Amino acid sequence: MSYILEALKQSEHARQQGKAPDLNSLPPLLAPPRQSARRPPAYLLLALGLSLAGAGLGWWRPWQTAEIVVLAAQAPRSEAPSPPSAPAAPPKAAAPVEPAATPVALARPPTRAPQAPLIRLDPQPAAPGPAQPLVSAPPAVQPEPTLPAPSGRVLGFHELPDELRQSLPTLAVSGFSYADEPQLRMAVINGRILHQRDQVAPGVVVERIASDGVVLNYRGFRFRPR
Questions:
Q1: Domain-located, residue 139
Q2: Tell me, what DSSP letter sits at residue 40?
Q3: What's the confidence (pLDDT) of residue 218?
Q4: What is the biggest distance separating any 2 CA atoms in the chain, rounded to whole angstroms?
């Protein structure tokens, strides 16, 4: 700060003498400067001092010297090259190992081992398997006898085919009653009172009750019972 004040004072003194100040030729202030009749404003003196100080710092550049010193201190030291390592010695060849001398055994006659008696093993018979169940053959189906085609006429009992007569149940007609009106006609067969279209036995139907007798129907054959 004292340097700046001294520079301001020297500048004022040089201005009064009519020449520009020089930083390198600034003499030390030995005597107080002459007082002028009219002093400039203080802000002009301050601005002039700051500009001179900036010019001096720009010419001197104190920060550049410090940066060079820092860079020189940070420069890595060159490491001294290490001496080359000696090459490894080649491995020594292993000495060949001589095989140990094997003792020679005296040849002895081979001893024959006693032979075991031969045992003959007969194969055992296989165990019988489980008996297969006997499957009885189904009875043969007897074909039904072929009957002739029924005729349109009323047959007597003995005129029926033998197979048909043998398959008929017992039919006993006790009596019958004829009337003009069909619903009033009736017959007594096997002890039962039946009308036309009634069933006497399985498959045997009263087809008609006429004035001369009763007509039955069995498997398409019309006949009179005996």
A1: no
A2: P
A3: 94
A4: 192
For residues 11 and 165, the model is more confident at 165
Tell me if 179 is assigned to some domain: yes
What is the spatial distance between Cα 172 and Cα 226, in angstroms, rounded to a whole number?
8
- Beta partners for residue 205, in sequence order: 199, 217
Residue 10 lies in a domain: yes
3-state secondary structure of 176: strand
Per the domain annotation, does 27 fall within a domain?
yes
Range of the domain at 54: 2-72
Three-class secondary structure of residue 207 per DSSP: strand
State the total domains in the chain.
2
In angstroms, rounded to a whole number, what is the distance separating the alpha carbons of residues 52 and 57?
9
Per residue in 42-92, pLDDT (tens digit) is 777 888 888 888 777 777 665 555 555 455 555 555 444 555 555 555 555
Q: What is the DSSP letter of 214?
A: E
Mean pLDDT of 15-40: 54
Residue whose C-alpha is closest to residue 189's, from 213, 165, 154, 211: 213
Q: Are 206 and 142 in contact (CB under 8 A)?
A: no
Last residue of a domain, one of 72, 91, 115: 72
Indicate whether 180 pLDDT > 60: yes
Task: Out of 72, 91, 123, pick the residue that ends a domain.
Answer: 72
Task: Measure the CA dihedral 20/37/53/48, to 10°.
Answer: -90
